[in-house]
Amino acid sequence: MLGFVFGFFVQLFAGIVPVPSDTVTLQQVEVVSVPLDRFAKGQQIISVDGLVLRESRGNTLSELLQRHSGLFVRQYGPGMVGSLTMRGTSAGHNAFFWNGLPINSPSLGQMDLSVIPLSGLDKLEIHFGSSGANYGTDAIGGSVHLTSHPAWKKGWNVEVSGGVGSFGLHRQEFSGGYANSRFQSRTRVYRKAAANRYPYRNLAKPGTPTEKQAHAAILLSGIVQDFRWMLNSRSQLSSSIWWNAADRQIQPLIGSNTRDVQSDQSLRWVLDFNQSTENSHLNVKAGWVRDEMVFNRSEKTVTDQFLVAGELDWSLRSAWEFKSGIRATHLRGDLSTYSTSEQRLEVYHATNYSPVQPLTISLSLRQQIYGEELAPFTPSIGVDWELLKGGEHRVIGKMAASRSYKVPTLNDRFWKPGGNPELRSESALSAEIGALYRYEVTGKKWETRLTYYRMRVDNWIIWMPGAAYWRPENIREVASHGLDFMTSAKYRIKRWELGLTGSWAWTNAIVLQQENATGQEVGRQLPYTPNHKVQFGVNMQWEALGFFINGHWVGPRYISMDNQNALPSYGLLDVGWRYDLPIKQHRISLGFQLYNLMNAAYQVMRLRPMPGRNYELNLIVTL
Asked: What is the pTM of this model?
Protein backbone atom coordinates (compact mmCIF):
# COMPACT_ATOMS: atom_id res chain seq x y z
CA MET A 1 0.00 0.00 0.00
CA LEU A 2 2.98 2.32 0.49
CA GLY A 3 3.55 2.46 -3.26
CA PHE A 4 -0.09 3.37 -3.85
CA VAL A 5 0.13 6.24 -1.38
CA PHE A 6 3.49 7.28 -2.79
CA GLY A 7 1.91 7.47 -6.24
CA PHE A 8 -0.73 9.86 -4.85
CA PHE A 9 1.92 12.32 -3.67
CA VAL A 10 3.77 12.02 -6.96
CA GLN A 11 0.59 13.12 -8.73
CA LEU A 12 0.24 16.09 -6.39
CA PHE A 13 3.87 17.02 -6.97
CA ALA A 14 3.42 16.67 -10.72
CA GLY A 15 0.53 19.15 -10.54
CA ILE A 16 2.67 21.75 -8.71
CA VAL A 17 5.88 21.50 -10.71
CA PRO A 18 5.42 22.39 -14.39
CA VAL A 19 6.34 19.70 -16.86
CA PRO A 20 8.69 20.84 -19.63
CA SER A 21 6.90 21.39 -22.93
CA ASP A 22 9.23 19.02 -24.80
CA THR A 23 8.27 15.96 -22.69
CA VAL A 24 7.99 12.99 -25.03
CA THR A 25 5.02 10.64 -25.07
CA LEU A 26 4.93 7.29 -23.28
CA GLN A 27 5.13 5.34 -26.51
CA GLN A 28 8.41 7.02 -27.39
CA VAL A 29 10.19 6.67 -24.06
CA GLU A 30 9.18 3.25 -22.80
CA VAL A 31 12.26 1.01 -22.65
CA VAL A 32 11.58 -2.54 -23.79
CA SER A 33 13.64 -5.47 -22.49
CA VAL A 34 15.30 -7.94 -24.86
CA PRO A 35 12.81 -10.70 -25.88
CA LEU A 36 13.61 -14.21 -24.67
CA ASP A 37 13.70 -15.64 -28.19
CA ARG A 38 16.21 -13.06 -29.45
CA PHE A 39 19.19 -15.40 -28.91
CA ALA A 40 17.35 -18.72 -28.70
CA LYS A 41 16.90 -19.57 -32.35
CA GLY A 42 15.85 -23.12 -33.11
CA GLN A 43 13.95 -23.52 -29.83
CA GLN A 44 10.35 -22.87 -28.88
CA ILE A 45 9.21 -20.21 -26.46
CA ILE A 46 5.53 -19.62 -25.82
CA SER A 47 3.64 -16.93 -23.95
CA VAL A 48 0.49 -17.72 -22.01
CA ASP A 49 -2.39 -15.67 -23.37
CA GLY A 50 -3.29 -12.61 -21.31
CA LEU A 51 -6.96 -13.64 -21.22
CA VAL A 52 -6.00 -17.02 -19.75
CA LEU A 53 -3.93 -15.26 -17.06
CA ARG A 54 -6.82 -12.97 -16.22
CA GLU A 55 -9.37 -15.78 -15.97
CA SER A 56 -6.94 -17.87 -13.89
CA ARG A 57 -5.97 -15.11 -11.46
CA GLY A 58 -7.46 -16.98 -8.50
CA ASN A 59 -5.33 -20.03 -9.25
CA THR A 60 -1.68 -20.83 -8.73
CA LEU A 61 1.01 -21.49 -11.31
CA SER A 62 0.64 -25.21 -10.62
CA GLU A 63 -3.03 -25.20 -11.65
CA LEU A 64 -2.52 -23.02 -14.72
CA LEU A 65 0.29 -25.14 -16.20
CA GLN A 66 -1.65 -28.35 -15.55
CA ARG A 67 -4.78 -27.02 -17.28
CA HIS A 68 -3.42 -24.85 -20.09
CA SER A 69 -0.13 -26.30 -21.30
CA GLY A 70 1.33 -29.53 -22.55
CA LEU A 71 3.40 -29.76 -19.36
CA PHE A 72 2.79 -32.23 -16.56
CA VAL A 73 2.74 -31.02 -12.95
CA ARG A 74 3.14 -33.50 -10.11
CA GLN A 75 0.45 -32.32 -7.69
CA TYR A 76 0.32 -33.82 -4.20
CA GLY A 77 -3.17 -32.43 -3.63
CA PRO A 78 -4.99 -29.10 -4.09
CA GLY A 79 -2.68 -26.40 -2.76
CA MET A 80 -0.04 -28.97 -1.82
CA VAL A 81 3.43 -29.24 -3.34
CA GLY A 82 3.40 -28.90 -7.13
CA SER A 83 6.53 -29.68 -9.16
CA LEU A 84 7.06 -29.39 -12.90
CA THR A 85 8.47 -31.98 -15.26
CA MET A 86 9.54 -30.88 -18.75
CA ARG A 87 10.64 -33.31 -21.43
CA GLY A 88 11.17 -36.15 -18.98
CA THR A 89 13.33 -34.30 -16.47
CA SER A 90 12.81 -33.96 -12.74
CA ALA A 91 11.52 -31.00 -10.72
CA GLY A 92 15.05 -29.69 -10.16
CA HIS A 93 15.80 -29.55 -13.89
CA ASN A 94 13.69 -26.47 -14.62
CA ALA A 95 14.84 -22.90 -13.97
CA PHE A 96 12.37 -20.28 -12.71
CA PHE A 97 12.79 -16.51 -13.01
CA TRP A 98 10.83 -13.53 -11.74
CA ASN A 99 11.56 -10.28 -13.59
CA GLY A 100 14.82 -11.89 -14.70
CA LEU A 101 15.82 -12.88 -11.14
CA PRO A 102 16.55 -16.62 -10.55
CA ILE A 103 14.22 -17.87 -7.80
CA ASN A 104 14.88 -21.63 -7.56
CA SER A 105 15.56 -22.69 -3.99
CA PRO A 106 19.35 -23.09 -3.51
CA SER A 107 18.79 -25.77 -0.85
CA LEU A 108 16.28 -27.87 -2.83
CA GLY A 109 17.13 -26.72 -6.35
CA GLN A 110 13.49 -26.46 -7.43
CA MET A 111 10.27 -24.46 -7.08
CA ASP A 112 6.97 -25.32 -5.43
CA LEU A 113 4.45 -24.09 -8.02
CA SER A 114 1.53 -24.27 -5.59
CA VAL A 115 2.79 -21.25 -3.65
CA ILE A 116 3.15 -19.02 -6.75
CA PRO A 117 -0.16 -17.15 -7.18
CA LEU A 118 -1.10 -15.69 -10.54
CA SER A 119 -2.58 -12.59 -8.92
CA GLY A 120 0.76 -10.78 -8.94
CA LEU A 121 1.81 -11.67 -12.51
CA ASP A 122 1.36 -9.80 -15.78
CA LYS A 123 3.19 -12.13 -18.15
CA LEU A 124 4.19 -15.81 -18.27
CA GLU A 125 6.62 -17.30 -20.79
CA ILE A 126 7.86 -20.88 -21.09
CA HIS A 127 11.13 -21.88 -22.78
CA PHE A 128 10.97 -25.54 -23.78
CA GLY A 129 14.18 -27.59 -23.82
CA SER A 130 17.75 -27.27 -22.61
CA SER A 131 18.74 -23.65 -22.23
CA GLY A 132 21.69 -23.62 -19.84
CA ALA A 133 23.72 -21.37 -22.15
CA ASN A 134 20.95 -18.77 -21.95
CA TYR A 135 20.00 -18.94 -18.27
CA GLY A 136 22.56 -20.96 -16.30
CA THR A 137 22.08 -23.81 -13.85
CA ASP A 138 18.90 -25.92 -13.61
CA ALA A 139 17.62 -25.14 -17.14
CA ILE A 140 18.00 -28.72 -18.44
CA GLY A 141 14.35 -29.44 -19.19
CA GLY A 142 13.43 -25.82 -19.74
CA SER A 143 12.68 -22.57 -17.95
CA VAL A 144 9.68 -20.54 -16.82
CA HIS A 145 9.74 -16.73 -16.78
CA LEU A 146 7.35 -14.69 -14.62
CA THR A 147 6.91 -10.94 -15.04
CA SER A 148 5.08 -8.55 -12.74
CA HIS A 149 5.59 -5.24 -14.57
CA PRO A 150 2.21 -3.96 -15.82
CA ALA A 151 1.63 -2.13 -19.10
CA TRP A 152 2.04 1.62 -18.78
CA LYS A 153 -1.38 3.27 -18.40
CA LYS A 154 -1.67 6.93 -17.43
CA GLY A 155 -3.73 8.08 -14.49
CA TRP A 156 -5.23 6.18 -11.59
CA ASN A 157 -6.01 2.49 -11.90
CA VAL A 158 -7.91 0.63 -9.18
CA GLU A 159 -9.31 -2.88 -9.28
CA VAL A 160 -10.97 -4.95 -6.58
CA SER A 161 -11.92 -8.59 -6.98
CA GLY A 162 -13.09 -11.51 -4.94
CA GLY A 163 -14.32 -15.05 -5.28
CA VAL A 164 -16.01 -17.88 -3.42
CA GLY A 165 -16.10 -21.54 -4.28
CA SER A 166 -16.43 -25.14 -3.26
CA PHE A 167 -14.83 -26.69 -0.18
CA GLY A 168 -14.48 -23.43 1.74
CA LEU A 169 -12.69 -21.42 -0.95
CA HIS A 170 -12.70 -17.64 -0.66
CA ARG A 171 -10.24 -15.08 -1.99
CA GLN A 172 -9.79 -11.31 -2.14
CA GLU A 173 -7.52 -9.10 -4.25
CA PHE A 174 -6.78 -5.40 -4.55
CA SER A 175 -4.76 -3.61 -7.20
CA GLY A 176 -4.11 0.12 -7.19
CA GLY A 177 -1.70 2.27 -9.10
CA TYR A 178 -0.87 5.59 -10.68
CA ALA A 179 1.18 6.59 -13.71
CA ASN A 180 2.17 9.81 -15.41
CA SER A 181 4.61 10.47 -18.21
CA ARG A 182 7.64 9.78 -15.98
CA PHE A 183 6.58 7.55 -13.13
CA GLN A 184 4.49 4.47 -12.49
CA SER A 185 3.54 2.71 -9.26
CA ARG A 186 1.26 -0.25 -8.67
CA THR A 187 0.42 -2.17 -5.50
CA ARG A 188 -1.30 -5.56 -5.49
CA VAL A 189 -2.50 -7.38 -2.38
CA TYR A 190 -4.01 -10.87 -2.43
CA ARG A 191 -5.35 -13.48 -0.06
CA LYS A 192 -6.71 -16.97 -0.76
CA ALA A 193 -7.97 -19.54 1.75
CA ALA A 194 -9.54 -22.96 1.31
CA ALA A 195 -10.50 -25.65 3.81
CA ASN A 196 -10.33 -28.31 1.05
CA ARG A 197 -12.86 -30.54 2.82
CA TYR A 198 -13.78 -32.43 -0.32
CA PRO A 199 -15.12 -36.01 -0.41
CA TYR A 200 -12.96 -38.93 -1.55
CA ARG A 201 -13.04 -42.72 -1.38
CA ASN A 202 -10.86 -44.10 1.41
CA LEU A 203 -9.14 -47.04 -0.25
CA ALA A 204 -7.49 -48.07 3.02
CA LYS A 205 -10.76 -49.06 4.69
CA PRO A 206 -13.01 -52.06 3.96
CA GLY A 207 -15.67 -51.14 1.43
CA THR A 208 -13.78 -47.95 0.46
CA PRO A 209 -16.24 -45.60 2.17
CA THR A 210 -16.59 -41.98 1.08
CA GLU A 211 -15.02 -39.58 3.58
CA LYS A 212 -14.15 -35.90 3.68
CA GLN A 213 -10.59 -34.67 3.57
CA ALA A 214 -9.92 -33.45 7.09
CA HIS A 215 -6.39 -32.05 6.98
CA ALA A 216 -5.62 -30.07 3.80
CA ALA A 217 -6.46 -26.42 4.53
CA ILE A 218 -4.37 -23.69 2.89
CA LEU A 219 -3.89 -19.95 3.33
CA LEU A 220 -1.98 -17.98 0.68
CA SER A 221 -1.36 -14.24 0.94
CA GLY A 222 1.06 -11.63 -0.30
CA ILE A 223 1.82 -8.23 -1.77
CA VAL A 224 3.55 -7.14 -4.99
CA GLN A 225 4.87 -3.61 -5.40
CA ASP A 226 6.15 -2.33 -8.75
CA PHE A 227 7.84 1.01 -9.46
CA ARG A 228 9.11 2.41 -12.75
CA TRP A 229 10.79 5.74 -13.47
CA MET A 230 11.55 7.19 -16.90
CA LEU A 231 14.89 8.88 -16.26
CA ASN A 232 15.01 10.27 -19.79
CA SER A 233 13.89 9.28 -23.28
CA ARG A 234 16.29 6.31 -23.33
CA SER A 235 16.72 5.24 -19.71
CA GLN A 236 14.45 3.55 -17.20
CA LEU A 237 14.80 2.49 -13.58
CA SER A 238 12.43 -0.14 -12.19
CA SER A 239 12.06 -1.94 -8.90
CA SER A 240 9.76 -4.70 -7.71
CA ILE A 241 9.17 -6.25 -4.30
CA TRP A 242 7.20 -9.45 -3.78
CA TRP A 243 6.34 -10.87 -0.38
CA ASN A 244 4.49 -14.18 -0.43
CA ALA A 245 3.37 -16.42 2.46
CA ALA A 246 1.71 -19.82 2.54
CA ASP A 247 0.41 -21.79 5.53
CA ARG A 248 -0.65 -25.37 4.77
CA GLN A 249 -1.90 -28.46 6.48
CA ILE A 250 -0.01 -31.20 4.64
CA GLN A 251 -2.56 -33.56 3.11
CA PRO A 252 -1.82 -37.09 4.44
CA LEU A 253 -1.69 -40.22 2.33
CA ILE A 254 -4.85 -42.30 2.21
CA GLY A 255 -4.72 -44.49 5.32
CA SER A 256 -2.36 -42.19 7.20
CA ASN A 257 -3.24 -40.05 10.22
CA THR A 258 -0.30 -37.63 10.06
CA ARG A 259 -1.03 -34.01 10.93
CA ASP A 260 1.99 -32.22 9.49
CA VAL A 261 1.88 -28.47 8.86
CA GLN A 262 4.20 -26.23 6.89
CA SER A 263 4.71 -22.47 6.62
CA ASP A 264 6.56 -20.83 3.73
CA GLN A 265 7.59 -17.21 3.33
CA SER A 266 9.46 -15.63 0.43
CA LEU A 267 10.73 -12.09 0.01
CA ARG A 268 11.97 -11.16 -3.46
CA TRP A 269 13.35 -7.80 -4.54
CA VAL A 270 14.83 -6.75 -7.86
CA LEU A 271 16.20 -3.46 -9.15
CA ASP A 272 16.76 -2.90 -12.88
CA PHE A 273 18.42 -0.12 -14.82
CA ASN A 274 17.75 -0.22 -18.57
CA GLN A 275 19.22 2.06 -21.19
CA SER A 276 18.57 1.81 -24.91
CA THR A 277 20.18 3.45 -27.90
CA GLU A 278 19.55 2.89 -31.57
CA ASN A 279 21.85 -0.16 -31.69
CA SER A 280 22.25 -1.29 -28.06
CA HIS A 281 20.46 -2.15 -24.85
CA LEU A 282 22.12 -2.16 -21.40
CA ASN A 283 20.64 -3.86 -18.35
CA VAL A 284 22.13 -3.70 -14.85
CA LYS A 285 20.34 -5.82 -12.25
CA ALA A 286 20.54 -6.32 -8.50
CA GLY A 287 18.33 -8.65 -6.51
CA TRP A 288 17.71 -10.51 -3.28
CA VAL A 289 15.67 -13.65 -2.64
CA ARG A 290 14.99 -14.89 0.90
CA ASP A 291 13.06 -18.12 1.48
CA GLU A 292 11.94 -19.40 4.87
CA MET A 293 10.23 -22.71 5.56
CA VAL A 294 9.06 -23.99 8.94
CA PHE A 295 7.92 -27.62 9.13
CA ASN A 296 5.76 -28.68 12.07
CA ARG A 297 6.51 -25.37 13.77
CA SER A 298 10.03 -26.48 14.70
CA GLU A 299 12.29 -27.36 11.75
CA LYS A 300 13.27 -24.07 10.11
CA THR A 301 15.09 -23.55 6.80
CA VAL A 302 16.35 -20.13 5.70
CA THR A 303 18.18 -19.41 2.44
CA ASP A 304 19.32 -16.15 0.87
CA GLN A 305 20.44 -15.31 -2.65
CA PHE A 306 22.08 -11.97 -3.43
CA LEU A 307 22.65 -11.20 -7.11
CA VAL A 308 24.38 -8.53 -9.18
CA ALA A 309 24.40 -8.78 -12.97
CA GLY A 310 25.12 -6.74 -16.06
CA GLU A 311 24.19 -7.43 -19.67
CA LEU A 312 24.82 -5.54 -22.92
CA ASP A 313 22.96 -6.30 -26.13
CA TRP A 314 24.13 -4.60 -29.33
CA SER A 315 24.04 -4.97 -33.10
CA LEU A 316 26.62 -4.49 -35.83
CA ARG A 317 25.24 -3.64 -39.23
CA SER A 318 22.20 -5.71 -40.14
CA ALA A 319 23.71 -9.21 -40.05
CA TRP A 320 25.23 -9.36 -36.56
CA GLU A 321 23.71 -9.15 -33.08
CA PHE A 322 25.54 -9.71 -29.80
CA LYS A 323 24.79 -10.11 -26.10
CA SER A 324 27.40 -10.32 -23.34
CA GLY A 325 26.87 -10.54 -19.62
CA ILE A 326 28.21 -11.38 -16.19
CA ARG A 327 26.33 -12.53 -13.08
CA ALA A 328 27.62 -12.83 -9.53
CA THR A 329 25.60 -14.56 -6.81
CA HIS A 330 26.16 -15.02 -3.10
CA LEU A 331 24.23 -17.92 -1.54
CA ARG A 332 23.66 -18.49 2.13
CA GLY A 333 21.88 -21.39 3.79
CA ASP A 334 20.94 -21.74 7.45
CA LEU A 335 19.21 -25.07 8.04
CA SER A 336 18.62 -27.36 10.98
CA THR A 337 21.57 -29.59 10.05
CA TYR A 338 24.06 -27.19 8.45
CA SER A 339 25.01 -23.58 7.74
CA THR A 340 27.03 -22.61 4.70
CA SER A 341 27.63 -19.91 2.09
CA GLU A 342 28.88 -19.96 -1.47
CA GLN A 343 29.98 -17.56 -4.20
CA ARG A 344 29.01 -18.11 -7.83
CA LEU A 345 30.25 -16.27 -10.89
CA GLU A 346 29.18 -16.81 -14.47
CA VAL A 347 30.01 -15.12 -17.75
CA TYR A 348 28.16 -15.60 -21.01
CA HIS A 349 28.04 -14.40 -24.59
CA ALA A 350 25.60 -14.90 -27.46
CA THR A 351 25.82 -14.06 -31.15
CA ASN A 352 23.19 -13.94 -33.90
CA TYR A 353 24.33 -14.06 -37.51
CA SER A 354 22.04 -13.64 -40.51
CA PRO A 355 24.09 -14.26 -43.66
CA VAL A 356 20.94 -14.16 -45.80
CA GLN A 357 17.52 -12.76 -44.95
CA PRO A 358 15.63 -16.03 -44.29
CA LEU A 359 18.42 -17.57 -42.15
CA THR A 360 19.50 -16.70 -38.57
CA ILE A 361 22.08 -18.63 -36.56
CA SER A 362 22.45 -18.28 -32.77
CA LEU A 363 25.58 -19.29 -30.86
CA SER A 364 25.59 -18.99 -27.06
CA LEU A 365 28.37 -19.75 -24.56
CA ARG A 366 28.37 -19.78 -20.74
CA GLN A 367 30.82 -20.70 -17.99
CA GLN A 368 30.02 -20.78 -14.29
CA ILE A 369 32.25 -21.12 -11.23
CA TYR A 370 30.62 -22.19 -7.95
CA GLY A 371 32.80 -22.23 -4.85
CA GLU A 372 36.08 -23.56 -6.19
CA GLU A 373 34.47 -25.80 -8.82
CA LEU A 374 33.92 -25.29 -12.52
CA ALA A 375 30.46 -26.11 -13.85
CA PRO A 376 30.44 -27.78 -17.29
CA PHE A 377 31.19 -25.36 -20.11
CA THR A 378 27.85 -24.75 -21.78
CA PRO A 379 27.52 -23.99 -25.50
CA SER A 380 24.41 -24.00 -27.66
CA ILE A 381 23.69 -23.40 -31.33
CA GLY A 382 20.34 -22.83 -33.01
CA VAL A 383 19.05 -22.10 -36.49
CA ASP A 384 15.84 -20.47 -37.75
CA TRP A 385 15.27 -20.77 -41.50
CA GLU A 386 12.25 -19.23 -43.14
CA LEU A 387 11.33 -21.99 -45.57
CA LEU A 388 8.20 -20.32 -46.94
CA LYS A 389 6.91 -16.77 -46.97
CA GLY A 390 4.09 -16.26 -49.37
CA GLY A 391 1.20 -13.92 -48.76
CA GLU A 392 -0.41 -14.83 -45.47
CA HIS A 393 1.61 -18.03 -44.96
CA ARG A 394 4.97 -18.50 -43.22
CA VAL A 395 6.88 -21.69 -42.43
CA ILE A 396 10.01 -21.50 -40.26
CA GLY A 397 12.28 -24.49 -39.82
CA LYS A 398 14.05 -24.80 -36.47
CA MET A 399 17.09 -26.78 -35.31
CA ALA A 400 19.10 -26.56 -32.09
CA ALA A 401 21.76 -28.43 -30.13
CA SER A 402 22.88 -27.53 -26.64
CA ARG A 403 24.56 -28.53 -23.43
CA SER A 404 23.03 -27.71 -20.04
CA TYR A 405 23.94 -28.39 -16.43
CA LYS A 406 22.72 -28.43 -12.85
CA VAL A 407 24.96 -27.51 -9.95
CA PRO A 408 24.44 -29.82 -6.92
CA THR A 409 22.13 -28.20 -4.40
CA LEU A 410 23.26 -27.09 -0.95
CA ASN A 411 21.35 -30.02 0.55
CA ASP A 412 23.08 -32.43 -1.84
CA ARG A 413 26.52 -31.31 -0.66
CA PHE A 414 26.15 -30.18 2.94
CA TRP A 415 23.21 -32.00 4.56
CA LYS A 416 24.26 -33.74 7.79
CA PRO A 417 24.43 -36.62 7.84
CA GLY A 418 24.78 -37.73 4.23
CA GLY A 419 25.76 -34.66 2.22
CA ASN A 420 28.37 -35.35 -0.44
CA PRO A 421 30.75 -32.42 -1.19
CA GLU A 422 32.38 -34.45 -3.98
CA LEU A 423 29.29 -34.49 -6.19
CA ARG A 424 29.75 -33.44 -9.80
CA SER A 425 27.37 -31.19 -11.69
CA GLU A 426 24.74 -32.96 -13.74
CA SER A 427 25.31 -32.49 -17.46
CA ALA A 428 22.86 -32.80 -20.37
CA LEU A 429 23.24 -32.92 -24.14
CA SER A 430 20.17 -32.28 -26.25
CA ALA A 431 19.12 -31.68 -29.83
CA GLU A 432 15.82 -30.79 -31.41
CA ILE A 433 14.31 -30.13 -34.83
CA GLY A 434 10.94 -28.66 -35.63
CA ALA A 435 8.82 -26.29 -37.65
CA LEU A 436 6.57 -23.32 -37.01
CA TYR A 437 3.65 -22.50 -39.33
CA ARG A 438 1.83 -19.16 -39.21
CA TYR A 439 -1.18 -17.92 -41.13
CA GLU A 440 -2.57 -14.45 -40.58
CA VAL A 441 -5.14 -12.32 -42.38
CA THR A 442 -7.62 -9.77 -41.14
CA GLY A 443 -9.78 -11.45 -38.51
CA LYS A 444 -7.94 -14.79 -38.65
CA LYS A 445 -4.73 -16.08 -37.09
CA TRP A 446 -3.40 -19.62 -36.90
CA GLU A 447 -0.10 -20.91 -35.47
CA THR A 448 1.15 -24.49 -35.21
CA ARG A 449 4.44 -25.82 -33.78
CA LEU A 450 5.89 -29.32 -33.96
CA THR A 451 9.21 -30.28 -32.33
CA TYR A 452 11.07 -33.57 -32.00
CA TYR A 453 13.81 -33.70 -29.35
CA ARG A 454 16.39 -36.05 -27.89
CA MET A 455 18.24 -35.56 -24.59
CA ARG A 456 20.72 -37.39 -22.42
CA VAL A 457 21.47 -36.45 -18.81
CA ASP A 458 24.68 -37.77 -17.20
CA ASN A 459 25.72 -37.68 -13.53
CA TRP A 460 22.05 -37.52 -12.49
CA ILE A 461 22.10 -37.17 -8.69
CA ILE A 462 20.14 -39.76 -6.70
CA TRP A 463 19.85 -40.12 -2.92
CA MET A 464 20.54 -43.77 -2.10
CA PRO A 465 20.29 -45.70 1.21
CA GLY A 466 23.63 -46.45 2.86
CA ALA A 467 24.73 -48.45 5.87
CA ALA A 468 23.61 -45.77 8.33
CA TYR A 469 21.88 -43.01 6.33
CA TRP A 470 20.90 -41.89 2.82
CA ARG A 471 23.56 -40.28 0.65
CA PRO A 472 23.45 -38.58 -2.81
CA GLU A 473 25.55 -40.00 -5.67
CA ASN A 474 26.13 -39.27 -9.37
CA ILE A 475 24.98 -42.73 -10.44
CA ARG A 476 22.20 -42.36 -12.99
CA GLU A 477 22.14 -41.73 -16.74
CA VAL A 478 18.80 -40.91 -18.33
CA ALA A 479 17.79 -40.53 -21.97
CA SER A 480 14.58 -38.98 -23.21
CA HIS A 481 13.03 -38.25 -26.57
CA GLY A 482 9.63 -37.12 -27.65
CA LEU A 483 7.36 -34.76 -29.55
CA ASP A 484 5.82 -31.41 -28.61
CA PHE A 485 2.83 -30.35 -30.70
CA MET A 486 1.01 -27.06 -30.13
CA THR A 487 -1.59 -25.21 -32.14
CA SER A 488 -3.70 -22.12 -31.62
CA ALA A 489 -6.15 -20.16 -33.73
CA LYS A 490 -8.15 -16.97 -33.39
CA TYR A 491 -11.10 -15.99 -35.57
CA ARG A 492 -13.21 -12.86 -35.60
CA ILE A 493 -16.56 -13.02 -37.40
CA LYS A 494 -18.65 -9.86 -37.07
CA ARG A 495 -19.31 -9.56 -33.31
CA TRP A 496 -18.00 -13.04 -32.51
CA GLU A 497 -14.47 -13.90 -31.43
CA LEU A 498 -13.36 -17.54 -31.29
CA GLY A 499 -10.10 -18.88 -29.88
CA LEU A 500 -8.87 -22.47 -30.11
CA THR A 501 -5.83 -24.11 -28.53
CA GLY A 502 -4.48 -27.64 -28.48
CA SER A 503 -1.33 -29.51 -27.50
CA TRP A 504 0.05 -33.01 -27.35
CA ALA A 505 3.23 -34.03 -25.53
CA TRP A 506 4.74 -37.47 -26.08
CA THR A 507 7.60 -38.19 -23.66
CA ASN A 508 9.75 -41.31 -23.45
CA ALA A 509 12.24 -40.95 -20.56
CA ILE A 510 14.17 -44.07 -19.59
CA VAL A 511 17.06 -44.99 -17.32
CA LEU A 512 20.12 -45.97 -19.37
CA GLN A 513 22.35 -46.83 -16.46
CA GLN A 514 22.32 -46.70 -12.68
CA GLU A 515 24.88 -48.15 -10.33
CA ASN A 516 23.54 -50.79 -7.94
CA ALA A 517 20.36 -50.97 -10.02
CA THR A 518 18.57 -54.20 -10.84
CA GLY A 519 17.83 -55.28 -14.38
CA GLN A 520 14.20 -54.32 -13.80
CA GLU A 521 15.07 -50.62 -13.54
CA VAL A 522 17.31 -50.06 -16.56
CA GLY A 523 15.36 -49.31 -19.73
CA ARG A 524 12.18 -48.39 -17.84
CA GLN A 525 10.16 -45.18 -17.97
CA LEU A 526 10.86 -42.75 -15.13
CA PRO A 527 8.19 -42.77 -12.40
CA TYR A 528 5.43 -40.17 -12.59
CA THR A 529 6.39 -39.23 -16.15
CA PRO A 530 3.40 -39.85 -18.43
CA ASN A 531 4.09 -40.92 -22.00
CA HIS A 532 1.21 -38.75 -23.22
CA LYS A 533 -0.57 -35.58 -22.25
CA VAL A 534 -3.25 -33.89 -24.38
CA GLN A 535 -4.80 -30.48 -23.82
CA PHE A 536 -7.45 -28.46 -25.69
CA GLY A 537 -9.30 -25.21 -25.16
CA VAL A 538 -12.14 -23.25 -26.72
CA ASN A 539 -12.82 -19.61 -25.92
CA MET A 540 -15.80 -17.71 -27.36
CA GLN A 541 -16.66 -14.04 -26.96
CA TRP A 542 -19.82 -12.25 -28.11
CA GLU A 543 -19.68 -8.60 -27.16
CA ALA A 544 -19.72 -8.57 -23.33
CA LEU A 545 -20.39 -12.30 -22.88
CA GLY A 546 -17.62 -14.90 -22.90
CA PHE A 547 -17.55 -18.67 -22.56
CA PHE A 548 -14.73 -21.21 -22.33
CA ILE A 549 -14.22 -24.97 -22.40
CA ASN A 550 -10.90 -26.45 -21.37
CA GLY A 551 -9.84 -30.07 -21.02
CA HIS A 552 -6.76 -32.17 -20.58
CA TRP A 553 -5.98 -35.88 -20.53
CA VAL A 554 -2.99 -37.45 -18.78
CA GLY A 555 -1.83 -40.97 -19.57
CA PRO A 556 -0.84 -43.64 -17.03
CA ARG A 557 2.12 -42.91 -14.73
CA TYR A 558 4.35 -45.60 -13.28
CA ILE A 559 4.84 -45.28 -9.53
CA SER A 560 8.14 -47.18 -9.21
CA MET A 561 11.36 -47.72 -11.13
CA ASP A 562 10.49 -51.29 -12.15
CA ASN A 563 7.29 -50.09 -13.94
CA GLN A 564 5.27 -52.88 -12.36
CA ASN A 565 2.40 -50.66 -11.18
CA ALA A 566 0.85 -47.53 -12.61
CA LEU A 567 -1.81 -44.98 -11.79
CA PRO A 568 -4.63 -45.00 -14.35
CA SER A 569 -5.02 -42.26 -16.91
CA TYR A 570 -7.52 -39.48 -16.25
CA GLY A 571 -9.25 -36.69 -18.13
CA LEU A 572 -10.67 -33.44 -16.76
CA LEU A 573 -13.10 -30.98 -18.34
CA ASP A 574 -13.59 -27.39 -17.14
CA VAL A 575 -16.18 -24.87 -18.34
CA GLY A 576 -17.02 -21.30 -17.44
CA TRP A 577 -18.49 -18.00 -18.52
CA ARG A 578 -17.89 -14.31 -17.87
CA TYR A 579 -19.89 -11.14 -18.42
CA ASP A 580 -18.35 -7.66 -18.62
CA LEU A 581 -20.65 -4.76 -17.80
CA PRO A 582 -19.22 -1.29 -18.56
CA ILE A 583 -20.60 1.55 -16.42
CA LYS A 584 -19.30 4.90 -17.69
CA GLN A 585 -15.54 4.75 -17.17
CA HIS A 586 -15.72 1.67 -14.96
CA ARG A 587 -16.29 -2.02 -15.54
CA ILE A 588 -17.82 -4.87 -13.60
CA SER A 589 -16.95 -8.43 -14.60
CA LEU A 590 -18.83 -11.44 -13.25
CA GLY A 591 -17.45 -14.92 -13.83
CA PHE A 592 -18.31 -18.52 -13.04
CA GLN A 593 -16.01 -21.56 -13.44
CA LEU A 594 -16.94 -25.21 -13.05
CA TYR A 595 -13.92 -27.49 -12.71
CA ASN A 596 -13.87 -31.28 -13.23
CA LEU A 597 -17.30 -31.12 -14.83
CA MET A 598 -17.58 -34.91 -15.16
CA ASN A 599 -16.71 -35.41 -11.46
CA ALA A 600 -13.78 -37.72 -12.28
CA ALA A 601 -12.13 -39.53 -9.36
CA TYR A 602 -8.38 -39.42 -9.93
CA GLN A 603 -4.96 -39.21 -8.34
CA VAL A 604 -2.01 -37.33 -9.82
CA MET A 605 0.28 -38.90 -7.21
CA ARG A 606 -0.41 -42.26 -5.54
CA LEU A 607 -2.73 -42.23 -2.48
CA ARG A 608 -3.29 -38.48 -2.75
CA PRO A 609 -6.89 -37.96 -3.94
CA MET A 610 -7.86 -34.85 -5.86
CA PRO A 611 -11.21 -33.02 -5.59
CA GLY A 612 -14.21 -33.91 -7.73
CA ARG A 613 -16.57 -31.40 -9.32
CA ASN A 614 -16.11 -27.93 -7.85
CA TYR A 615 -16.97 -24.34 -8.73
CA GLU A 616 -15.84 -20.75 -8.25
CA LEU A 617 -17.87 -17.55 -8.57
CA ASN A 618 -15.88 -14.34 -8.88
CA LEU A 619 -16.43 -10.62 -9.28
CA ILE A 620 -14.01 -7.98 -10.60
CA VAL A 621 -14.66 -4.24 -10.29
CA THR A 622 -12.38 -1.90 -12.25
CA LEU A 623 -12.58 1.77 -11.28
From this structure: 0.93
